[in-house]
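agent> call fold_tool(seq_1)
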Amino acid sequence: MQKIATDLPGVFIIEPQVFGDHRGWFMETYSASKFHEIGIDTIFVQDNQSFSAQKGTLRGLHFQNDPQAQTKLVRCTKGSILDVAVDIRKGSPTYRKWVAVTLTADNYRQLYIPKGFAHAFLTLTEDVEVQYKVDEYYSPACDRGIRYNDPDIGVIWGDIEPVLSDKDQKSPLLRDSDSNFTY
């Protein structure tokens, strides 16, 4: 298992070792001991999975406020996504900065996103499945979002007319959000 730094400290690309032969392939997507060896000691408590039928579906930018903020480990198991993390920790040297990583069923990459970062993904193909682990349970009281096209953040999604949920269409800008993260 390999941990690759991104431009946002604490956000990592995880590349598992894939073993293949004439039958197909095998990989460990998560191992507490192997994550410990690469310096990640997060204890995950819940696995989530989503399916998006349409190319151009955009989910996010989502996060949970403290006291139930979530660290996520995201992977794409069918299709392809542009996975995005945004630093929303007030006072951080990378506040409002973002990183985007293409995750596909074929590249096996995962994105590790710690607490204090908002998360979103855009489907690049039809029929996409995304699976992710979190280290805190879902909390409706702490669940929050930021508008995907917030001009103060400036994520470059490409030339798309995204398919959005009602919740994501109505999300506030970061400056109007009650995000409670500080650096």
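agent> call fold_tool(seq_2)
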Amino acid sequence: MSGHSKWHSIKHKKAKEDAKRGNIFGKLSKSITIAAREGGGGDPENNFMLSNAIAKAKEYNMPMDNIDRAIKRGTGEIEGEKFETIMYEGYGPGGTAIMVEVMTENKNRTAADIRNLFSKHNGNLGETGCVGWLFERKGIILVDRAEVKDEESFMLDIIDSGAEDIEEDGDIFEIKVDTSEFMNVRKKLEENKIKIKSAEVSYIPKSTVEVSKKDAEKVLKIINLLDDHDDVQNVYSNVEISDEILQEVG
């Protein structure tokens, strides 16, 4: 197993913790606003970006009033900050690659913050494209094994609906899907009444870098600090952390 499931499970767990503190709603609102503005309008039926952003917001029980306001800010029906999406790329401890997706109304301030976080925590912010080639954009859906009654039927069904691959990691099924088929697979799971643990369109590494315990601690620290920044929507890395080390430092 490549370790993607572990990584997405870590992200999902942290997002759930952030949701309890209310920290994630601001990020979800930005994502919905950008999707409505750049993805093709305020109708999720005709806007894949928006449909996915709304589905993710619902995962974290974001109130519909918040979702509606975010859509209206994106379509211009109500006033709001003019956010833009920027991807920063750099290097982390242990030779790892890190990509940071931000949504900001002040790119100069955000760029300085991101550069500072990299430099203070054993990292180095690089030029655009320096590590992007190490990743590919795919849909990643996680499902608990307990949700699946017939595994063979489940796998055939999901592959038929458009999934590229299904991997197993302990109690988790990780479904990888092309972005064009993401919503089809998601809908198939919902139709089959299979609860989704996590679903997102993400940058996943084509290959990973396994790190020592010392570097694992450093990588997780810089990733968590970046992820906690208000303007940061997502952090992606090609770090590979063994189960044994993850239990000690995770």
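agent> summarizing second result for user.
Strands lie at 84-92, 96-104, 124-125, 135-144, 163-169, 172-177, 198-205, 209-210, 232-237, 239-240. Residues 4-21 form the longest helix (18 residues).
agent> awaiting next instruction.
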